[in-house]
Amino acid sequence: MGKAAKITGTWANCKACGQEMAPGNGCSSIHIYDMPNGEKWKRVAWGREQRYQAPSENEACHDCNAMPGQYHHPGCDMEECPKCGNQLLMCDCWD
Ligand SMILES: [Zn+2]
Ligand SMILES: [Zn+2]
Ligand SMILES: [Zn+2]
User: Fold this and answer.
1) Phi, psi of 87 (to 5 degrees)
2) Per-residue pLDDT at 92
3) Which of 59, 67, 63, 84 is nearest to 75 (CA)?
4) CA 83 → CA 11, 26, 27, 91, distances in Å?
5) 64 CA distance to ligand 2 centroid (A)?
């Protein structure tokens, strides 16, 4: 909890792609991450995470409402770091 996307009746807008974070609107903006060390990593789409069991076919991301196979909106706390496999918001790859 603690994300604006949960407010009843409205959806927060993604700062990256500008879409409302409504179910089915995966992020259309950033699909590759440029790491501080110059490496490029393809983002992990919802449902491709190593840390969780794959969601069912119509199960939106619990935080950003991406559907399986779509990209999370940046800042989603479900997103996995493509490099280390930990929670993207918590990992050390971006220092
Ligand atoms: Zn987005
Ligand atoms: Zn998400
Ligand atoms: Zn990482």
Assistant:
1) -60, 130
2) 93
3) 63
4) 30, 21, 19, 10
5) 4
The pair phi, psi for residue 52, each rounded to 5°, is -120, 160
| Single pTM value for the model | 0.85
Distance 42 CA to ligand 1 centre (A): 15
Identify the nearest ligand to the CA of 37 by its number.
3
Cα of 79 to ligand 3 centre, how many Å?
A: 11
Model confidence pLDDT, tens digit, residues 14-53:
999 999 999 999 999 989 999 999 999 999 999 999 998 8
**What is the secondary structure of the chain as a DSSP string?**
---GGGSTT--PBPTTT--B--TT----S--EEE-TTS-EEE---TT--SSSPPPPTT---TTT-PPTTSPPPTT-TTPBPTTT-SBTTT-STT-
Stretch 43-72: mean pLDDT: 95
